[in-house]
Amino acid sequence: MAEPTAKEQLDPQAQLDRLAGLAQDVLARCRARGASQADVVLDLDRGLAVNVRLGEVETVEYTRDRGLSLTVYFGQRKGSASTADLAPASLEATVEQACAIAKLTEEDPAAGLAEAELMATEFPDFDQWHPWGLDAEHAIALAVACEQAGREADPRIDNSEGAAVNTNESLSVYANTHGFVGRERSTSHSLSCSLIAGKGSAMQRDYWYTSALAAEDLEPAAAVGRRAAERAVARLSPRQVKTGEYPVLYAPEVARSLIGHLLGAVSGGALYRRASFLLDQAGQRIFPAWMNIVEKPHLRRGFRSAAFDGEGVATREQDLVRDGVLVRYVLGSYSARKLGLKTTGNAGGIHNLVVETGEYGFDELVQRMGRGLVVTELMGQGVNTVTGDYSRGAAGFWVENGEIVHPVDELTIAGNLRDMFQRIEAVGRDVDRRSHILTGSILVGRMTVAGAA
């Protein structure tokens, strides 16, 4: 197929049409080689990334990537291949390699496309396409303004790790031999700043960032810099706390990691490998009875909004947790077959998970906990999905009499995720909207906090 014309390069719909035609051509080649089923993904991405430090430009990077990923099935034998070259000869070679691999593999009873009757038939616009006409000069100016605002916000800001501006446009087509062709387009933009307060051994670093699908939804550059400065200064002169069991309040930017651990434990891959502490827990209450978590794949401007999953299966709003009960697992067709279940439309992951919030804001949750730990940063990867054991480095703030009294660091917080989920006392209304996991602060009633002896 010919290279895109200048008009096609500027017109995303024309590029999507071209990718769709290319996908159908590749699938026809697979059929001609005897494949019983096949699917293909084609992507086009382009972006701009700028980094500055202390007012000077460190990097300016333009990206323009494209790729094709192909999977073919000969009965229940599977082969995959990929290429970044969309020229006809390369596509032919990719098809040949995928077919050759499939013929050499063992049969897998769970292999194959998702059922044809599950394919999406409606493709609403979720308002995810908002290109930012940003050139390098403008991006540099934004990054410099962001960092400068942060450095000037407080005399205790002594150094900087820099500021960054990123913008990206992505076009994608998924097609399979059921006759399904799905097109997606989205943009993403971000602005971040990381600053250092204090000097010598007393230095403390912190950061802030804003992220959105549309540039008008980003926080102002100066506000991002000032927020980074406030966070860095607030961490100066940390103290330790005595080891013990205390309430722990996860700030919203780290609270979503708890929900991420839940997703890891209820994902099909972990379950059919029997590597999850939530094995055989569907239908069981694993959270307090008031807690609800809902997948909403059709949110306007949602980070992971989609009409179909990675196999073309139609997405829909559905509970993950209702009244504290784990309603279902998170499955694609392969993991569903391995478990003797049906796909939940989650091949490729979850789509916009919303943790329903309570009546309390962040300050009210601090007051409610009385004495304990507010966590604003987590370090390390000490989480065992098989057992649920949880142990991570942490930093944040100590609370006495319902008020934050001083920063803390060099702590370890520990527990077991099964117990931690049951001990959740509240979810704040201070939702962090910079992710596809939408949650406010999460208050866990009791955890082990290891600090000073």
UniProtKB/TrEMBL annotation:
Record GO biological process: proteolysis
Family annotation (InterPro entries): Metalloprtase-TldD/E_C, Metalloprtase-TldD/E_cen_dom, Metalloprtase-TldD/E_N, PmbA, TldD/PmbA_N, TldD/PmbA_sf
An example Gene Ontology CC term for this record: cytosol
Domain spans labelled Metalloprotease TldD/E N-terminal: 39-102
Record-annotated Metalloprotease TldD/E central domain positions: 130-236
Record family assignment: Belongs to the peptidase U62 family.
Protein name: PmbA protein
Organism: Rehaibacterium terrae
